[in-house]
Amino acid sequence: MRPLAIILLVLAAAPLSGRAASAVGAPEEPPQQRSPQASPQQEPPPPPAEPPPAKGGETYVTGDDRDFEPEVPARSLALGPVGRGDLLVSLDLGWLRSGLRADLGLGSWIDLTLRADTLLLYDRFRGQSGIYAGVRASPTSQGLFRASAELSVGQVFVPGDATMANLTAFRGSATAGLVLDLATLYGRADIRWVSNLKPAGPGWTRDAELGAGVERAFGRFVVGAEGFVWARPGLSGLGQWRVRVGMAI
User: Fold this and answer.
1) For residue 96, is the peptide bond before it cis, meaning its omega torsion is within 30 degrees of 0?
2) Is residue 10, in this structure, part of any structural domain at all?
3) Domain of 151?
C-alpha cells in the first residue's frame, strides 16, 4: 500500500507545481497608470460664474477695465467746468465791451476765474475798465441741461478829468443752458455792486446784465456769440454784443 500511496501523492502534486512554475515564469503586468485627466487634483478649475445682468439694462464698469474712459464734459466758455489742472483762455471782442478771461480747473466742478474787461470806447474813451478774480461752480456739468454760478471781486477803474478813480466791485453771475450736438444755447444774468464817491459821501451803486448766447466746441477751441442788455438805475438799458473765442491749454 505504501508505494501506491506515494504514487498518488506524486500525481496529485504535479498539476500544482506546473501552475506555480507558470506563475513564476510569466512577466508581471505593470500597474495600470491613471491618466492626468482622471486625477481630481489636476483638473482645471471651473470658469467663474458670470454676474447677473443689472436691472434696467445698465452696465457697470469697474476700475479694472483699462479700456474704460470717463465721460468728459463738452468745453464751454459760459457754463464750464474746466478739467482739473486745465486752463481755458478766451478773448471777447464786442460793442461796447471787450476783454480777456482765464479759467483754471480746480476739480470737483470748481474753477478759478480771472478776467479783465473794458468799456473804453464808451463815453469818448472815458469808459470804465476792470479786473476780477473769482470762483465758478458747475454742479450740473453732465447731460443735456447744465448750470453754473460765479462770484468774483475786483477793481473798476474810471478815468476822470485829471485822475482815475479806483472802485471796489463785487459781481455775481448765474448761467444755465442746453448742450446739444450742434451747439450750446445758454442764458445768463449778472448783478454787480460798485463803490462810488458821491458828494454826500461814499456809497454803493449797482448795475446788471441780462443776455443769451450760443457757442460750439471744435476740439480744443470754443467759439461763440452773445447779446446782452446793460441795465443801470435811472438810465435806459444799453444793448451790446460780443464774439468769444477760447482755447484749452
Assistant:
1) yes
2) no
3) 87-248
The structural domain count of the chain equals: 1
What's this model's pTM, rounded to 2 decimal places? 0.69
Judge whether 90 and 104 are in contact, CB under 8 Å: no
Judged by DSSP in three states, 226 sits in strand
For 22, the enclosing helix (H) or strand (E) is helix 2-25
DSSP assigned state of 180: -
List the one residue out of 175, 152, 155 whose CA is nearest residue 165.
155
Which residue's entry shows cell 458821491?
198
The model's pLDDT over 96-151, given as tens digits with 9 standing for 90+, comes to 889 999 999 998 899 999 999 998 777 666 788 999 999 999 998 788 999 999 99
Non-local CB neighbours of 127 within 8 Å, separated by 6+ positions: 96, 118, 119, 120, 121, 159
In a domain, 28, yes or no: no
